[in-house]
Specification:
The chain is mainly alpha-helical and 215 residues long. The protein has 9 helices and 3 strands, in the order αααααββαβααα. It is globular and about 55 Å long.
């Protein structure tokens, strides 16, 4: 609900409401056994909450710098805005991309687009998994929509770089491969986490995002 404000021009920050941590649409334990409750609780109530809090702090400092005409401080705050703003955007999408009733394969227009752009669902799944496994350090694997070309596209983003703000692709499905997303359960074996997460992907949400961005 607050993520839409993040894409507003920074000049609009003078009059804004503080960002808030969105509620999860399911319980912390709802994604078990694929993602356990302890991970979900820490990930949502600690990690995502920290991005929200730090984003609010950075925006407040930016507002003060704008009022003073202090361009140097405005520039120095860009990394914090990008990191924490990206963390808030990414996780707000991520929670809705998951569902205890998820898994399987998408239907309708999204499935047709996946077949058109990747050859088959199996090929798409293999490519996004490999891309996500291959992210060096922390980051995200994404399925996005290239509006100019009218096609689906995969991309990896480092750290909390937001997909649309850094690549222009509209985010449809994000897979968080920061260690805090899986380490407590899967230790250092990221491929096992990636194999499991397909069981809770909310294809209704991804399909809805696809339909919206095509309008």
């Amino acid at each position: 609900r607050s993520s839409a404000k993040l894409v507003a021009p920074l000049g609009c920050l003078v009059s804004r409401q503080k960002h808030t941590l969105p509620d999860l649409p399911y319980d912390y334990a709802a994604l078990e056994p694929h993602i356990n409750a302890e991970i979900m609780q820490l990930h949502h109530s600690k990690h995502h909450a920290a991005y929200v809090n730090n984003l609010n702090v950075a925006e407040e400092k930016y507002k003060e710098a704008l009022a003073k005409g202090d361009v140097t401080t405005q520039v120095s705050l860009q990394p914090a805005l990008k990191f924490n703003g990206g963390g808030h955007i990414n996780h707000t999408i991520f929670w809705t991309n998951l569902s205890p009733n998820g898994g399987g394969e998408p239907k309708g227009e999204l499935m047709e687009a996946i077949k058109r752009d990747f050859g088959s669902f199996a090929n798409f799944k293999e490519k996004l998994t490999a891309l996500s496994v291959g992210v060096q350090g922390s980051g995200w694997g994404w399925l996005g929509y290239n509006k100019e070309q009218g096609r689906l596209q995969l991309a990896a983003c480092a750290n909390q770089d937001p997909l649309q703000g850094t690549t222009g692709l509209i985010p449809l499905l994000g897979i968080d491969v920061w260690e805090h997303a899986y380490y407590l359960q899967y230790k250092n074996v990221r491929p096992d986490y990636l194999k499991a997460i397909w069981n809770v992907i909310n294809w209704e949400n991804v399909s809805s995002r696809y339909a919206t961005c095509k309008k």
